[in-house]
């Protein structure tokens, strides 16, 4: 690992808006970290937390927590959150598979999954963040009426997610096969573009969006 990454890995251990190997606020994130009773929204595979920080500005009455395993990206996101005085944003460095260690049943109101790796090989389908395995993980802490939002450039992951949603008989809230085909859809997604989304748009890739509830109909 490069020296720069090592420095950032060490730095996040001392930042008061980043948690690593430390689920002290399980069951009491709103009070314990944010010092309020606002709803909790997660951004999974957050990278630098572009959606978490963007939504935090649009919704100061909600708390946002970005989750990723890459410490150097979290370092950048956590610093930007501090620079913009976003006290309603925090980050957790962990594998998303282990999030049940950080959140109590019904503690989370909404989940955003932004441009996750699509893990295209069939043998790796369980790593996809909208696989049945991960829906079960989310059910451990997302409220039954809670919504999962997926934004992706991958037509395969988009189609796969629709299959999972259909097989589990979940309720689709919104489904945009091309976010930028209609201006309204773009506005509904708050006009936030992540680092990866900007790269994909430069490559003229189509951006897909689907949101659904995780309780069975
Ligand atoms: C393609 S990047 C997207 C980053 C950001 N959302 C964006 O759009 O700019 C995917 C991110 O997902 C994270 N990731 C993928 N699977 C993960 C998992 N199981 N647990 C934690 N992070 C994961 C990777 O570390 C990576 O930062």
Structural topology:
Blueprint: H1 3-12, E1 18-20, H2 29-34, E2 40-44, H3 50-58, E3 63-68, H4 71-83, E4 89-93, E5 108-114, H5 132-139, E6 142-152, H6 155-167, E7 170-176, H7 183-188, H8 195-202, E8 208-216
Helix pairs in contact: 1-4
This protein binds S-adenosylmethionine.
Which strand order spans the largest sheet, edge to edge or round the barrel? 1-4-3-2-5-6-8-7
The CATH homologous superfamily is named Vaccinia Virus protein VP39
- Please estimate the helix content: 25-40%
Assess the beta-strand content as a share of residues.
15-25%
**N-to-C SSE string, H for helix and E for strand:** HEHEHEHEEHEHEHHE
| Number of domain units | 1
Radius of gyration: 17 Å
Q: Helical region count?
A: 8
> Could you tell me which ligands this complex binds, including any ions or cofactors?
S-adenosylmethionine
CATH topology, by name, is Rossmann fold
Question: What can you see in these coordinates?
Answer:
It is a single chain. The chain is built from 8 helices and 8 strands; from the N terminus they run H-E-H-E-H-E-H-E-E-H-E-H-E-H-H-E. By secondary structure, the chain is α/β, with parallel strands linked by helices. It has a single domain, classed as Rossmann fold. It has an 8-stranded mixed beta sheet with strand order 1-4-3-2-5-6-8-7, sandwiched between helices. The structure holds S-adenosylmethionine. S-adenosylmethionine (SAM) binds at residues 45-47, 50, 68-70, 73, 95-97, 114-117, 194-197.
